[in-house]
Design a protein that fits this description.
The protein is an alpha+beta fold. It has 2 domains: about 90 residues; about 70 residues, no CATH class. The chain is about 55% helix and about 15% strand. It is built from 4 helices and 6 strands. It has a 3-stranded antiparallel sheet. Strands 4-5-6 form a 3-stranded antiparallel sheet, with no helix packed on it. Helix 1 packs antiparallel against helix 2. It is rod-shaped and about 135 Å long.
Length: about 180
């Protein structure tokens, strides 16, 4: 957050300078009221003073709203930066791996695996900054891994052919 303070201070200085200008004008009007002798002249200066004070109040309200908006946006951007940094650290734990069937997944590196079970994450989601653990499934003649959020299916290995299926015409009940 500290990197944004100098810029924010410059913007605040503009607002403060405007507020001081309004206060100076109000002070000048008040001083000139002291030198007036007639009620009509005093009334004119009071109306002028009220106009300056209302303008000053409006300017301060606007500055406060702008400052609140900027503070909120800075918070959002800092949260995005923190999330990006966390993803950068997390993705370093994985390496691209080609399965026996030719599919590409990201697999956790053995040196950082610790007590976590061996797992794979979706290559498509990884490129988008999302960590999605792939779940085992079958896809035709392949053992596969499926990403449920993006519906990707990665073939891991071919299921071995069990040979021809023999259908016998023998019916023990027909005799």
């Amino acid at each position: 957050m500290g990197r944004f303070l100098p810029r924010r201070n410059l913007v605040m200085m503009d607002w403060i300078a405007g507020a001081y200008g309004g206060i100076k004008a109000a002070t000048d009007i008040t001083q000139s009221m002291l030198t007036l002798k007639t009620d009509a002249a005093v009334t004119t200066k009071v109306v002028e003073l009220n106009g300056v004070l209302l303008g000053l109040q409006s300017q301060l309200n606007s500055a406060h709203a702008d400052q609140t908006t900027l503070t909120r946006r800075i918070g959002e951007l800092e949260a995005e930066i923190a999330q990006f940094k966390r993803w950068e650290q997390e993705k370093e734990r994985y390496q691209l791996h080609q399965t026996e069937a030719g599919g590409l997944v990201y697999r956790i590196k053995p040196e950082v695996q610790g007590t976590e079970p061996l797992h794979h994450i979706c290559a498509d989601c990884y490129q988008k900054g999302i960590k999605t653990i792939l779940q085992p499934c079958n896809d035709g003649w392949y053992k596969a891994l499926k990403c449920h959020p993006c519906n990707s299916v990665v073939h891991v290995e071919k299921i071995p052919d069990s040979g021809p299926v023999v259908v016998s015409r023998y019916d023990p009940f027909s005799e």
